[in-house]
Amino acid sequence: MAETKPTATVKATSVQPKKSSNAISWIAPIVCIIAGYAIWRFIMGSADGFENPDKGGGFAPHHKGPKDALHRMYEGGIIIPLLVGMLLMVIVFSIERYLTIRKAMGNGSISDFIRKVQYHLANRNVDAALTECDKQRGSVGNVMKAGLRRYKEMINEGSMDIEQKVISIQKEVEEAT
């Protein structure tokens, strides 16, 4: 009969999902469409830009005879606020993505961070390597920290063989990414 090795149980992952809201995903489009309407109605549709303004006002005044190109765009109708709102959404989400990516990069050079972690691990100082991960404060640091935490647990684990420990660490890193 084939010999089987007993397997030790491994704790669940220490990686916790980030509890942040994506409020910008639903607030930004609404605000941008409202801003698009305000730009269309009060800037493109200002009465002083037309030869024969509509004195009645309302949601969409019927001005006649635009004096310049900006006020001529007003004559495009109610589709213009939607288009302006979409342009604003592109700008808002581009800025949001830029800020998110900059934050994910963390502090300092990634190559310097990796060198410091390697140095601490070569000197068997896992706690110092974890401290470097906290200082980096980026996505690379967070993934490295998850792997180092599991590595620290596996150092003291005696009931598992090396292959099981490596698989456990790899699983932790995969779940952190």
List keywords for this structure.
rod-shaped, mainly alpha, 2 domains, single chain, 177 residues, 2 strands, two-stranded antiparallel ribbon
Structure write-up:
This protein is mostly helical and 177 residues long. The chain has two domains: 23-105, no CATH class; 110-176, no CATH class. Helix content is 63%, strand content 3%. The protein contains seven helices and two strands. It has helices spanning 23-44, 69-74, 79-105, 110-122, 126-136, 139-156, 162-176, and strands spanning 50-52, 64-66. Strands 1-2 form a two-stranded antiparallel ribbon. The relative contact order is 0.12.
Short overview:
Helices cover 63% and strands 3% of the residues. The chain has 177 residues and is mainly alpha-helical. The chain has a two-stranded antiparallel ribbon.
**Largest sheet, described in full?**
2 strands, antiparallel
**Strand fraction band?**
under 5%
What's the overall average pLDDT, rounded? 86
Q: What is the helix/strand order?
A: HEEHHHHHH
Explain the layout of strands and helices.
Elements: H1 23-44, E1 50-52, E2 64-66, H2 69-74, H3 79-105, H4 110-122, H5 126-136, H6 139-156, H7 162-176
